[in-house]
Amino acid sequence: AQSVTQLDSQVPVFEEAPVELRCNYSSSVSVYLFWYVQYPNQGLQLLLKYLSGSTLVKGINGFEAEFNKSQTSFHLRKPSVHISDTAEYFCAVTLQDAGNNRKLIWGLGTSLAVNP
Amino acid sequence: SAVISQKPSRDICQRGTSLTIQCQVDSQVTMMFWYRQQPGQSLTLIATANQGSEATYESGFVIDKFPISRPNLTFSTLTVSNMSPEDSSIYLCSANRGMNTEAFFGQGTRLTVV
């Protein structure tokens, strides 16, 4: 079955430390990849996306992600986190199902907690 | 980009009643979706709202329980019918202009059924 796996449900980190949130997907066809952030009691906001071209994509708030086709991964990174980065992060991938229909599949989310 | 207005933002409802959630987009979009998000969990797609035709429901969701309308390219409603406490959740409206573009989200409707 098509799936998106976020390997860490919770990531605690100290302020100004680097962070990596991992995302793997299962697909053998071309995909579109997204990272969204959800701050407490708010909707989802796009951080960054990969559609084609350079495999390293930069997003808002200093985040970046690298698409690795051979490892079917799209890990999110930030070199130095801030308290305000505390939020839920969702990886989402547009995958093609057996009927050649494209569907957006969501990971279960990673809760990033930045501590002072 | 697109701005999505969703209302109500929250409601507390009696079991057995129904609630209709409205979703208004500030520009024409190709696709509109309704999601459910349990507290602290990921998004579960309820259905794709199709303009001028019946919505496409995901496994585990049926039209009788979650009737959806989409009369035009900028507006959709989701009704949660005959509610029970198990329907307590956040309901999110989403829209995009194609599967290779980003999805935009409303702020969500926090529903509590008592």
Tags for this entry?
heterodimer; A: 116 residues; mainly beta; Immunoglobulin-like; 6-stranded mixed sheet; 4-stranded antiparallel sheet; 12 strands; 0% helix; 56% strand; globular; B: 114 residues; 7-stranded mixed sheet; 11 strands
Helix-strand makeup class of chain A? mainly beta
Could you say what the CATH topology of chain A is called?
Immunoglobulin-like
> How many structural domains does the protein architecture of chain B include?
1
Give the % helix of chain A: under 10%
In CATH terms, what is the architecture of chain A?
Sandwich
The assigned CATH architecture of chain B is Sandwich
Number of individual domains of chain A: 1
Beta percentage of chain A is: over 45%
- Spans of chain A of 5+ residues with little confidence (pLDDT < 50)? none
Can you count the helices of chain B? Answer: 0
- The general outline of chain A is globular
Largest sheet of chain B: 7 strands, mixed
**Helical region count of chain A?**
0
CATH class of chain A: Mainly Beta
Fourth CATH level, the homologous superfamily of chain A: Immunoglobulins
What level of helicity do the residues of chain B show? Answer: under 10%
Largest sheet of chain A: 6 strands, mixed
Shape of chain B: globular
Strand content of chain B: over 45%
- What is the number of beta strands of chain A? 12
Put the structure in a nutshell.
The complex is a heterodimer of chains A (116) and B (114). With 116 residues, chain A is mainly beta.
Tell me what the structure shows.
The complex is a heterodimer of chains A (about 120) and B (about 110). By secondary structure, chain A is mainly β. In chain A, strand 8 (about 65-70) and strand 9 (about 75-80) form a beta hairpin. Chain A is globular. Chain A has one domain (about 5-45, about 55-90, about 110-115): Immunoglobulin-like (Sandwich). Chain A has strands spanning about 5, 10-15, 20, 25, 30-40, 45-50, 55-60, 65-70, 75-80, 85-95, 100-105, 110-115. Chain A has no helices and twelve strands. Chain B is mainly β and about 110 residues long. Chain B has one domain (about 5-115): Sandwich (Immunoglobulin-like), CATH 2.60.40.10. Chain B is about 0% helix and about 50% strand. Chain B contains no helices and eleven strands. Chain B has strands at about 5, 10-15, 20-25, 30-35, 45-50, 55, 70, 75-80, 90-95, 105, 110-114. In chain B, strands 2, 4, 5, 6, 9, 10 and 11 form a seven-stranded mixed beta sheet that branches. Chain B has a four-stranded antiparallel beta sheet with strand order 1-3-8-7, with no helix packed on it. In chain B, strand 7 and strand 8 (about 75-80) form a beta hairpin. Classes of the chains: A mainly beta (about 120), B mainly beta (about 110).
